[in-house]
Amino acid sequence: MQLTPIGTIRSPFPSEEGMPIQPSGAWNAVGEVVVDAAYAEGLADVEGFSHIILLYWFHRVEGYSLTVRPFLEERSRGLFATRAPRRPNPIGLSVVQLIERRDTVLRIRGVDVVDGTPLLDIKPYVPAFDAPEKARAGWLEGKAERSETWTADDRFVEKT
Amino acid sequence: MQLTPIGTIRSPFPSEEGMPIQPSGAWNAVGEVVVDAAYAEGLADVEGFSHIILLYWFHRVEGYSLTVRPFLEERSRGLFATRAPRRPNPIGLSVVQLIERRDTVLRIRGVDVVDGTPLLDIKPYVPAFDAPEKARAGWLEGKAERSETWTADDRFVEKT
């Protein structure tokens, strides 16, 4: 199980420090997905989708912790109940808005990754597949909506 | 970028043949996510979420095609505008309903993978992160909803 980057995600964030995380009513960071030319043909029809799912490699983390203490939380949580990047397989997932495609470059809104992040896959976001009708967000219920005040440092939390 | 399975997904489907794919009003296949004991601590708090995102390895495919012709479609589509499994990085993504957790076993509903699929990651499904308000599903608009009549063979399409 070996991965090969298929491109790079460009964002306004040179590092995790101060990088906002999704979602935020106020926050609309625009970035680019730059896909390697070898995969150009595979991008046909992507522009029909308003949103895409990016899978990428958390290239700046090492190791993982099975418990993490999220920002502003008093108690620690199991890693798989969080979106923290230090995971056994450090694959990140973001749903972003697709603004436009220019050849092998996708302009996106809602980018919450560090500039230069290696891209692993692009999947079309399909509500019928990806959006269950009623979902309960566990310990994040009612908190995720307020995440405009969070920054990505908060996801890069220490083991408790 | 090396991956390590953290568990196995058990499903009623020994092979792709006849396996339904998400979503389906009528279809409610129940399966299990069996997480390796080494990662047990990381599952704390997962049970608070009604839905989880599974990342897994399409272990039965080899190679990839940059264009695919989906089931019942006359024209081929770019790979990254489809959910076909033969991808440069064959990572699958499914949003499933979490029925219950028993220690390191998660009972799930809506499983659309082959029995024995290697699990790579579990992430909590968080509507505020993962469900954009208005999404347009490109060539799949209005078709994905009818996918109860599809089976997974249809995703395993030949290069056109």
- The proportion of strand residues of chain A reads 25-35%
Within the largest sheet of chain A, what's the order of strands? 1-2-7-6-3-8
What's the pLDDT, averaged over the residues of chain A? 86
State the order of secondary-structure elements of chain A, H for helix, E for strand.
Answer: EEEEEEEEH
The rounded Rg of chain A comes to: 16 Å
CATH architecture of chain A: Beta Barrel
**Oligomeric state of this protein:** homodimer
Low-confidence stretches of chain A: 156-160
State the total count of DSSP E strands of chain A. Answer: 8
Number of helices of chain A: 1
CATH topology of chain A: Elongation Factor Tu (Ef-tu), domain 3
- What's the CATH first level of chain A? Mainly Beta
Overall number of structural domains of chain A: 1
Query: What distance lies between the first and last C-alpha atoms of chain A, to the nearest angstrom?
Result: 30 Å
Q: What name goes with the CATH superfamily of chain A?
A: YaeB-like
The helical percent of chain A reads under 10%
Characterize the main sheet of chain A. 6 strands, antiparallel, barrel
Q: Largest interface here, residues on each chain?
A: A-B, 65 and 65 residues
Shape category of chain A: globular
Q: Structural class from helices and strands of chain A?
A: mainly beta
